Amino acid sequence: MGLFDRIKQGLAKTATVLNTDIRDLFKSEGRLVDDAFLAELFAILVKTDMGGGPAAEIREQIGTDFRGRVIHMSDAFEVIKQKVRELLAQPPQPLRFAESGPTVIVVVGVNGSGKTTSIAKLAMLCKSDGKRVVLGAGDTFRAAAVEQLTVWAQRIGVDIVTGAGQSDPASVAHRAVTKAREDGAEVCIIDTAGRLQTQVNLMRELEKIRRVVGNQVPGAPHEVLLVLDATAGQNGVSQARGFSDAAGCTGIVLAKLDGTAKGGVVIPIRQQFDLPVVFVGVGEKPEDLVVFDVDPFVDALFTEMESPS
Ligand SMILES: Nc1nc2c(ncn2[C@@H]2O[C@H](COP(=O)(O)OP(=O)(O)OP(=O)(O)O)[C@@H](O)[C@H]2O)c(=O)[nH]1
Ligand SMILES: [Mg+2]
Known about the structure:
Elements: H1 3-10, H2 12-25, E1 31-32, H3 35-47, H4 52-66, E2 70-71, H5 73-88, E3 103-108, H6 115-128, E4 133-136, H7 143-156, E5 159-161, H8 169-183, E6 187-190, H9 200-216, E7 223-229, H10 233-247, E8 251-255, H11 266-272, E9 277-281, E10 289-291, H12 294-301
Parallel strand pairs: 3-6, 3-7, 4-5, 4-6, 7-8, 8-9
Antiparallel strand pairs: 1-2, 9-10
Helix pairs in contact: 1-12, 2-3, 3-4, 4-5, 5-12, 6-7, 8-9
Magnesium ion is lined by residues 115-116, 139, 145.
């Protein structure tokens, strides 16, 4: 499956709701743009969890351009797409790779957001790029977490460093980076425990991981990726805010996009965090991680409308 088709598939739930509703808004050949129309459009947009602010911006834009005139679906569609592109705009964000030595990527996020699965997918992506990868099972809090990552490592065919139960995550991270250096691996990805921003001790643990790997490789960690669960919608966004502030995150992975009709949540995420969205997760298989790119994302979001049934 091509890249665009994978994004499209991942966004299918959101796109279906969005496009069906917008098409329903245009019963006949067009609609007069008045307060009633604008209110209906606003309600549809808000359903995707894009947030009241962005939905209002789109409503205002259509009001400014078309009020008192008849608007056709394709015109509305173009205005909405353009506005969403503006709202999502971010500099192109490839991962920052180390100038020398392994690139160290620490993956953080609240409980169950999709960290471990995203690490497996990211490892897969790096491996298909011809890079050698070492994983560090830094979530030593739960035995099952180490097991989960170990199974992934075997499945994908990358090395993994684990510690004994309840061992210091920073020491696992240290050993993982050491192994990556010794083996000449290009990438070392560190898993961390599911944690909440209110748990000060866990934040300290993360700080220690950062310090330890920073002493091993200049500039490490090169990326601290915050994994957010798209199915949590706006709720997950606010939960994650304190977390991202405390953890020094450099980018966002939006996991489980395929599981929600609220894929519009990527808009408040871009607006509320001063962080680029680097990847989106579109399934549970190792290849289900896609680089986030605004234009194809927006096209996929409105793809249904291009072939009205
Ligand atoms: N459909 C879908 N499911 C996903 C995706 N990413 C993760 N999951 C599922 O979400 C669940 C939690 O994922 P994990 O990777 O274990 O999450 P975690 O953040 O490591 O969880 P903790 O270690 O408990 O904090 C698993 O059942 C995954 O299969 C995705 O992109 N799409
Ligand atoms: Mg995990």
